[in-house]
Amino acid sequence: MIRGRSFTLKAVFGALALVFSGWSAGGLLAQDGADRAPSESARIQIEDARPASDAPPLVEGSRAEIPALDRKASADKPDLIPTEHFAGRPGFSGAKLSPDGATLTLIEREGGVVRLSASDPRTGELIDSLSFAKGTYVTSTQWVDKDKMLLEVWSAARRGPYLVRYSRLVLAYPREGRFEFLVEDQTGFNGGDVLHVDDAGEYAIIAHRGDGRLWQPSVYRYQLKPGGTVEKIVEPKYDVHYWIADDDGVVRLGMGWRKSKLLIFYREKEGDDFKTVARIKPGDEDSYFDALEILSNSNRGYVLDENEEGRVGLRIFDYATREVVETFYEHPDWDIDEVWIEDGKPVAAFYTDDREQIVWFNEDDKAVYDKLKAAVGDSDVWVTSRSDNGEQLLVWAGNEGDPGVLYFYDAPTQSLSELAQFRPELDFRKLVRPKAFSYTARDGTSIRAFLTLPKGRDPGKLPLIILPHGGPFGIRDELAYDDQVQFLANRGYAVLQPNFRGSGGYGSEFYDLGVGEVGRGMQDDLDDAMDWAVKQGIADPERVCVVGGSYGGYAALWAVLRNPERYRCAASWAGVTDWTRMLKYDRRVLTRSAGKRWTAKIKGDEGKNLKDVSPYRLADNLSRPVLLAHGTLDDNVPFKQYEQMVKAARKAPVPLTTLVIENEGHSFSRASSEQAWYDALDTFLAEHNPADQVDENGKLRAPPTPEQPSIFRTIELPGMSGEAQE
C-alpha cells in the first residue's frame, strides 16, 4: 500500500545498491497554469461504495463519460492503437502530498523539460511550479514540512570527450515557486544522499563528496532555511561508500567494498568510533543483507534476511553482534520484497506470488485499504503518499490490463476523487488482462507462466508470440501492466510468458535448475510452453514466433536456429549472440569472484561448451526471418554482439532484418527508441507472421500520430558547463 521512507541497502554480491524505498506515482492535474477541477460526480462515498458496474458516470466530457470507478474493459475487438501510445511515458510521476494534506506536488515531463508543480488536491487548482533545463531529471522528492521539499536532480554534460553525470540537492518551496541548491562544492559531481530529515523539517543529514574526495562521502547537517548553516558531523572513511542513520538522525552504520569483500562499520551512539563488525565474502551465509532501519538508543533494528532454507523474511537484528534476534514476519511460501516502516515500527510487508501482495501489521490501516479496494472494484490498490495524520491519501488503482488512475482520498468527507489517468492516451477498455497458469515441462518440472489473449477474437488457432524475460537468473514475469504485451495483444497475437527454470521468486531449487541450462533446459521450457498452447487449441502451430530482449532476445535467436521447424520467425532486442565473448566482457566489469560465479551459472558444474549454444556459430544456416535490433551505447550486452551476428549471417539463406538505435543503451531510455522498436516489430511481424495489423489487401494498417507536447521555461543547474545531454 505504501512504500516507506527508509533507505534500503542490499548487499548482494556483484552489486551494491542504495535505493530509496518510496514507491511513487503521480497525476497531471493542470496544463501549464490552467485550472482543472475534478468533477463532483467523480467523488464517491466510501461507506456507501457499491459494485463498480453501478458507479455513477462522470459529467459529459470527463474521461469520455467512462464511469468513475468502472475500470472494466470492453470485450469487443478493439481498433489498432498507435505504437506511440504504447511507447509513451506517463506525463507525471513522484506525486506527493504535503504533511498537512493541502498540497499535491507532481513531476511532469513534456518535450524533454521537467516541471515540479504544486496544486490543490481538492480543486485541482495550480498553485505554482518550477521547471528545469532540458535534459535535467528529478529523481526523488521528499516533503520536509508543509511548505518545503528536498529534491534530487541530475543532468549530464560533456567535459571534453567525456559524458559526465551531475546530481544536485534542491531545497524547494513548491507553493511559492522558489528554490535554492544545497551543494557544498558547485564543481563536484555528486549532490549528496539524504540520510535523515527531522520531524520538524528544520534540518537534514546528508552524505556527499563535497570536500573533493572522489568516492568516500562525508556526512553533513544542513539547516533547512535560506542561508542555513552547514556542519560536517562525520568525516569520510576510506572504505565507506554508503552511510545509514538511525531514526533520530544519528549516523550509525557505514558500508563499502574492499577487495571483493563487503565491509560493515558500526557504532552504538554518537561520538563513538566506528568499528568493523563484518567482512562478508562471496558465498558467506550472510551474503544477503538488507538494512531497513536502525532504532535510536538501541543496537537493534530491522533487516530483510534469509533463513536457513533461503527464504527472505523480516528479522529483528542486533547490529553490534550481527545476529538475528527474532523473526518479525516471514511468509511461508514467498520472499519478502519490501517493508514499510514508519516511526521505527513495521506497518506492512510486500511479497510477490503471481502479483504484488501486501500483509498488514496494523488493523486500522488494513481497514482503510479494504475500503479503498472495495471502492475501486477489480483493481490493485496502492497508497503512494499520505498526510501526516493519515486523513488524506493519494491512491493508485490499476492492474495488469490497466496502467492505472490516481485518486485523492479524504477521510473526513469519506470521498475518493479521481485526479488523473497515468496513461490517458491509452484507452484501458481496449486492453486485456493476462492470466496465470502452470504447465509441466518434459522433465516433470512445473512452470508458471502468463497468457494474454487478444480481445474480441475466438481463442483458437491464434498466432502466438512467446515472450521470454531477460536475466535469465533471478528475473521473473508477473501480473503487472506491460506495454509490449499489450501492443502484441492489440495486434491480434496470443502472448505467452513462461517463467522458465532459473527464474526468480520460486525458491532456490527452481533457480538452481537453470544452472548450466542456457540454450538447453531453459530453451526446452519455451518449446514446452508452445506445445501446451497448441495442445490447448489456443495457438496455430504454423504461426509461432519468439520475441524478447536481453536474454529473451538471445532465446528468440536460438529458437529459430535450434528449432526452425517449430518457429516461424524471431525478433531480438539487445540479445546475446556469442556467450564466450559475453562472459569475457562480463569479467571485465564484474569483480573477479562475481565473474567466476556468473560464468559457473551459465556453464554449469560440468562446464558445458557455450559455443554449442551461441547463435552466431549457426548464423550462416539461418532459415527463418529474424529482426535483430540493438542500441549503440549498450554497456550490458555490448554492440559488438550485434555486429558479430550481422557479419556471421551475411551468407545465410534468409537475410537479417536489422534495426540500430543510435545513442541508446540496453533498455529504452527514450520513448522514441521504444517506438522505433515497436514500429520495426509491427512491420516485421506483419510480413512474416501477420495478424490484425494487416488489412484485407495484405497491407500494414497505420494508426494515427498523437499531438506533440509543449515546452516550458527552464532553470539551469549550478556547476554545469558544456552541452546538456538528454
Describe the global form. Answer: globular
Number of strands: 39
The oligomerization state is single chain
**Taking Cα atoms only, what radius of gyration do you get, to the nearest Å?**
26 Å
- Helical proportion, percent range: 10-25%
Largest sheet: 8 strands, mixed
How would you describe the overall organization of this protein?
- The structure is a single chain.
- By secondary structure, the protein is an alpha+beta fold.
- 15% of the residues lie in helices and 34% in strands.
- It contains 10 helices and 39 strands.
- An 8-stranded mixed sheet has the order 31-32-34-33-35-36-37-38, sandwiched between helices. Strands 2-1-20-21-22-23 form a 6-stranded antiparallel sheet, with no helix packed on it. It has a 5-stranded antiparallel sheet with strand order 3-30-29-28-27, covered by helices on one side.
- A hairpin with a 5-residue loop joins strand 12 (193-197) and strand 13 (203-208).
- The protein is globular.
- The two termini are 33 Å apart.
Short synopsis of the structure:
This protein has 10 helices and 39 strands. 15% of the residues lie in helices and 34% in strands. It is of the alpha+beta class and 726 residues long.
